[in-house]
Amino acid sequence: xxxxxxxxxxxxxxxxxxxxxxxxxxxxxxxxxxxxxxxxxxxxxxxxxxxxxxxxxxxxxxxxxxxxxxxxxxxxxxxxxxxxxxxxxxxxxxxxxxxxxxxxxxxxxxxxxxxxxxxxxxxxxxxxxxxxxxxxxxxxxxxxxxxxxxxxxxxxxxxxxxxxxxxxxxxxxxxxxxxxxxxxxxxxxxxxxxxxxxxxxxxxxxxxxxxxxxxxxxxxxxxxxxxxxxxxxxxxxxxxxxxxxxxxxxxxxxxxxxxxxxxxxxxxxxxxxxxxxxxxxxxxxxxxxxxxxxxxxxxxxxxxxxxxxxxxxxxxxxxxxxxxxxxxxxxxxxxxxxxxxxxxxxxxxxxxxxxxxxxxxxxxxxxxxxxxxxxxxxxxxxxxxxxxxxxxxxxxxxxxxxxxxxxxxxxxxxxxxxxxxxxxxxxxx
Length: 429
Hints:
Elements: E1 2-5, E2 9-13, E3 16-19, E4 24-26, E5 30-33, E6 36-37, E7 49-52, E8 57-60, E9 62-67, H1 80-89, E10 92-97, H2 108-118, E11 124-127, H3 143-149, E12 154-155, H4 164-175, E13 180-182, H5 188-191, E14 196-197, H6 200-205, E15 209-210, H7 212-229, E16 232-235, H8 241-251, E17 257-261, H9 263-267, H10 289-300, E18 306-307, H11 316-319, H12 336-346, H13 352-359, H14 361-367, E19 381-392, E20 411-421, E21 424-427
Parallel strand pairs: 2-7, 3-8, 9-10, 10-11, 12-13, 13-16, 14-15, 16-17, 17-18
Antiparallel strand pairs: 1-21, 2-5, 3-4, 5-6, 8-19, 19-20, 20-21
Helix pairs in contact: 2-3, 4-7, 7-8, 8-10
């Protein structure tokens, strides 16, 4: 991947422009001047830098509202700079970073630190603040002050808020600022040290299982609390059929519910762990084929608003361990589009337009970001896609500081070839 300054005038020529806001496609050229979308002054095209996009899709840059960049404290796993490189390679121009850093993002000062550090990186980075101090699950943080500094949501991700009264207070407090509250949906008592999905495969492998009820019961609790308080509940990385059903039912009567699904839960089932690949150890775990198919159906039914990678870098030492001792999490930015395009579009006939909406306009609406990126004068956040390219994902395609991906050597379909963000242009393939 080569990243350069964006020329003053750029013409993306000959491609199909898809606007996910209006759900329209056209074959017009896209013109960018001084890093901004230019819909007029077509006479200036003559001296523009021309990029041939024939046969490609030109659309909004992707937005991932659930990533872990590890800075501050674990820069050996990922930094804002290396995370931004991984994002560009995956077609992402905007990401939201979770607060489980060291120290956690639980003060206004920590939110300011992230935003100041992120000014120089080539993608837009937004901090998610912690729900509780030190993510200990007891005392609510100063959400109002953190929101003023730039926090876009609140979560103790990785550490579920177990106490229902704390979660209720968080939703009540968050409703004052109209921000999403995001709770890692696992009942730790029901999980009981589970390291993979509880089922036939966990029994065969002799590994402690994590039952689907650990997720669905927590999702049900949070949805009910959301209905009680009027707060905005966003359910992250849904992995089970039962949780998806709860969300589907609640969405019919509560407009303040949104939800995401991760590529790895759509792509893999727990039989893939047969060879104890620790890259597949994630929380919530890779579930059964029944759950995987239910998640795909939930995408078709509009249950999930967006795709989020839960990009979670770890060191080689943390992953090169026995399965029960290895760290939870996998990276996912670089492989995202190829994986979900293969599963959803190519294998399950979900429209490409729906997939793009789940990667672009929908996550932006959840977080309150500018959503109509093809308006005149808007700073360019653009990705050019080759939706039909078949390719093998390899370690050479990874730009994260960590390499813990189960997609290595997987055959994927579709990939970003150009990403434009913050006056930079990344040529990926």
